[in-house]
Amino acid sequence: MSTIKLVLGMVAAENLHLEQLDMKTAFLHGDLEEDLYMIQPERFIVQGQENLVCKLRNSLYGLKQAPRQWYKKFDSFMHRIGFKRCEAYHCCYVKFFDNSYIILLLYVGDMLIVGFGIEEINNLKKQLSKQFAMKDLEAGKEMI
């Protein structure tokens, strides 16, 4: 929480832009690293094949691996597009430009994006939206 307060203080002191995104179904984006099987969901059981199981191809809500796998996928994407992760707070990413920077704070599926240039922020939002299902909440107003 102290990182959020620090960044919001920077927004106020430096008159930065503040945008907010909501990741839809964040935990469903994670890739599994091991084979996981589950019983067939009730409404999908094929008559005569009740004893078969399903092999999961992606993460599901409720899996103990889901939060970690989501974070690993997001972290990998952020590094690919040139962001550096903060050492002290692993859900804070920074990218520097010639005369500006962008900070992205991640809390589960909620994101705050802070920066000087709205064009750079909009470009980041486009990149994120191409990779993940997102809802653009535009100017940040509230955060849990």
From TrEMBL:
The lineage of its organism: Eukaryota, Viridiplantae, Streptophyta, Embryophyta, Tracheophyta. Residues 2-140 form the Reverse transcriptase Ty1/copia-type domain. This is Retrovirus-related Pol polyprotein from transposon TNT 1-94. SUPFAM superfamilies: DNA/RNA polymerases (SSF56672). InterPro entries: DNA/RNA_pol_sf, RVT_2. It comes from Vitis vinifera.
